[in-house]
Structures are given as structure tokens and as C-alpha cells.
Amino acid sequence: MRTRPLKVALLGCGVVGSEVARIMTTHAADLTARIGAPVELAGIAVRRPNRVREGVPAELVTTDATALVKRGDIDVVVEVIGGIEPARSLISTAFEHGASVVSANKALVAQDGAALHAAALERGVDLYYEAAVAGAIPLVRPLRESLAGDKVNRVLGIVNGTTNFILDRMDTSGAGYSEALDEATALGYAEADPTADVEGFDAAAKAAILAGIAFHTRVTLDDVHREGITEVTASDIASAKRMGCTVKLLAICERAEDGRSVTARVHPAMIPLSHPLASVREAYNAVFVEAEAAGRLMFYGPGAGGLPTASAVLGDLVAACRNRLGQTTGPGESAYTRLPVSPMGDVITRYHISLDVADKPGVLAQVATVFSEHGVSIDTVRQQGKDGEASLVVVTHQASDAALTATVEALRRLDTVRDVASIMRVEGE
Ligand code: HSE
After folding, report:
1. Which one-letter DSSP state was computed for residue 58?
2. Are 355 and 288 part of one and the same domain?
3. Are residues 112 and 242 in the same domain?
4. Which of 239, 302, 356, 375 gives a 20 to 30 Å CA spacing to 285?
């Protein structure tokens, strides 16, 4: 066994970084045995050096992240700062100085993954980011390595714990969105500014990364259709229940049936209670991968939190260190299919539409005509009338998102339609 240690620079020492530092110290002997050489924490770059960090060696702490990655003796840089800058510049500098990089940064990988991979390739070093998608759940490596000989057609899952917690609370307690968000904030699931989670940015970044790896093509955050959960109401959840469904924020990446394009989207959707994703409660994540030979695989576990995310970081760190010792690198970017990403309008799915209409003769026929004129076939209609007004719930068969959008626009123009109260896609059937 080599006795000269592999040196690791840790950028960021928040909830994830502090767990990475702690595990590296407490599990040093096991890590050494698994890697085949000792692995040593050479420096920890932080913004606030005076903050007390239990179990983190104070003598390693520095505020000069750039100097740390430029040292020249660092084998692996672990970036757990998050956000685009300074993370991007620090990772580039790390590559320029010959270090491999392990990152948990979904926003950066979803935006600049191709450029980062190219820089790593040019320098003959590794770029790993298992922790960027769904915390502890192994997804990047299974897609990239275990399924490298198969053909993945679909990835469908819950990849954001905060929104799953909120929707789960709305489902179990009947609470409205704001009340459930307040509870998520009080319990530490939602951040003070919850925008990235509740507006679907976090899930969209993960969807972009998963789609790119699954379909061997380039997918960036901008390619992902994104809708958050802020418009989901208690009445949507109640409607879902009446249909034997629940509402989840889903990330869905699909290869088109003709195989010539892919789509990636994040939006709330109704799924039947019989679907395994319906039983994913609280802040857990779960992802289905459908591959031609393997069939349907399900990955489930904690998708956030310091310790679970540190587990994914450590797994990548061991891989990067092993490669370093073997003077090799792991798999880089695979984007050879060059499949284009189709717009949301091309997506085919089912829809649940709630309308407030006038309750008088011919209205149902008028509404049905609009659906038929746009080629959208109705599966079920439920009507409840009161005082000359009625609420209509229409569930469609499969239709394109473009056809459904045109249908809804036409419905809004009808005098007898007072309001299109909600539109939700129905998935997982
Ligand atoms: N905020 C994310 C979530 C975890 O709630 O799942 C980090 O991506």
C-alpha cells in the first residue's frame, strides 16, 4: 500500500461539508483500506472562519479558497459550496492545477456540465457529482455505469424533498400551500428563501443532469420545462383524492417514441395511490428508471440533508482517489446521441381540468365540443351544480400538451366558462 497520502481540499463546510470532514477523520482507516492509500484533508475553505464546527480540524480552515486549490499538491477538490460562482471558477482552477473534482453542485452541473467535463478531460482528471442529484440515492453512477449497456427510455421521480414534504402535509392534513410551507420552514425542511425548491428550479437542475446521462445527450437547465408547487391548492389535492390519486412534484425525462428526441420536465402531477411514488412520504425522494433490458428500477431514499449527501460525496471521493492511484479516470461526459430536447408542447400525457361554468342547457355540450375540436379525447366528466353555477371536472385521455393548451385557451374564450380553476397533468398510469 502507498504510504504517501492523497490530499483533499474541501471547499465549503456547511451542513454537507462538515459531515464530509467528520467522516474523513472518523473513518480514515476504512477509507485508507478501500482506496489503497491514506487520504488526508489538506485544507478547508470557508467564508466564516470563526464559526464553531465540531469535529472539524480548526488548523485546516482557511478563507482563501483560490490559494487552496492552487497549491499544486491537491489530488481531489471537494466542492460543496453550491451556486454558480465562485464554485465554477474554483473548479476550473482546480482542473488547471491537476486536481480531480467531486461536486454536489446541481445548479452548476445542470448549467455548465459540458464545459466542466471538457475541462476535466483536457487535464486528464475526474469530475464526479453523485451528490448533486437526490442526496444519498445512487443515481448518477447507476445510470452512467451499471446501465451503460442498456437503453434507458424514461426517468420518473420525486427529486426534491422540500416540496414532497409540503405536498405530503397538504395531502395528510388538508392544509393549504402556505400553511404547509410554514410547517416545512419551522421544521427546517424549507430554507428561509424557498424559491429554488418550491418553484421547481432545484428539481429541474436534477432533471437536466439525469436526462443528459440517461439519454447520452446534452440537456441543460434551460431545456427543462419547469412548474413549481406554489399554485397547488387544497382543492387540487381534494380533487386528486376523489380520483384515487395524490399530487407529487415529478421530474420526468423521456425518450420520444420514435427515438429521435427527448423531453425533460418538472411539474406537479396527480398519480394514482397504487403507484409506488404515491407512498413516498415526507422529505424522501424516489426515482424510477425504465430501461429496455433491465425493465423498471426504483431508487428510494433520503434526497437531502448533510449526512446523506456526505455519503454520496464520500463515494465519489473514494472513486476519484482510486482512479488517481491507478493513474486513470472514470467515465466522462457521454453525449454522442446528440438527441434534441423537444418543447413541452410535444409531451403526451393525460390532464385533469377543473372549470367553473354556468349551469344551463348546452354548456356541457359546448365544453365537450371544444375538447373534440382540438383532438383531445375526454375520459371522464364530473359535474356539481349550485345556484346556477357548476363546477366541471374533466379528465382526458392522452393528448399533447400543445393540444391541451389550445383547448384551455378556447375554453377561456367561452362566455359560459367563468374560470379554468386548475389544470393538472395525470401521470403514472
Ligand atoms: N433542497 C433540496 C430538497 C435538497 O429539498 O430536496 C438539495 O437539492
Report:
1. G
2. no
3. no
4. 239
**Ligand 1: does its nearest atom lie under 6 Å from the Cβ of 137?**
no
Atom of ligand 1 nearest to the CA of 202: 8
Range of 370's domain? 344-426
Q: How many domains in the chain?
A: 3
Q: Residue 159 C-alpha to ligand 1 middle, in angstroms?
A: 8
Judge if 96 and 244 occupy the same domain. no
Pocket mutation for ligand 1, best pick of 103, 202, 206 (most atoms within 8 Å of C-beta): 202
Instruction: Give pTM, 2 decimals.
Output: 0.96
206 among known catalytic residues: yes
Ligand 1, residue 106: give the atom nearest the CA: 8
For residues 29 and 36, give the distance between their C-alpha atoms in angstroms, rounded to a whole number.
10
The active-site residue out of 7, 106, 206, 248 is 206
Q: Are residues 155 and 269 in the same domain?
A: yes
Determine if ligand 1 sits within 6 Å of the CB of residue 194. Answer: no
Q: Is the CB of 197 under 6 A from ligand 1?
A: yes
pLDDT digits (tens, 9 = 90+) for 171-216: 999 999 999 999 999 998 999 999 999 999 999 999 999 999 999 9
Pairing of strands 61-62, 39-45: parallel
Query: Which of 111, 86, 427, 152 is CA-nearest to residue 291?
Result: 152
Q: Do 15 and 67 have their domain in common?
A: yes
In tens, the pLDDT along 13-65 reads: 999 999 999 999 999 999 999 999 999 999 999 999 888 788 888 899 999 99
86 cis-preceded (ω within 30 degrees of 0): yes
Residues 126 and 207 in one domain: no
In a domain? residue 334: no
Are 175 and 277 contained in the same domain? yes
Nearest Cα residue to atom 2 of ligand 1: 160
Can you spell out the DSSP letters for 185-231? HHTTSS-SS-HHHHTTHHHHHHHHHHHHHHHTS---GGGSEE--STT
Q: Do 152 and 213 share a domain, yes or no? A: yes
Contact 160 CB / ligand 1 (< 6 Å): yes
Cα of 36 from ligand 1 centre, angstroms: 33
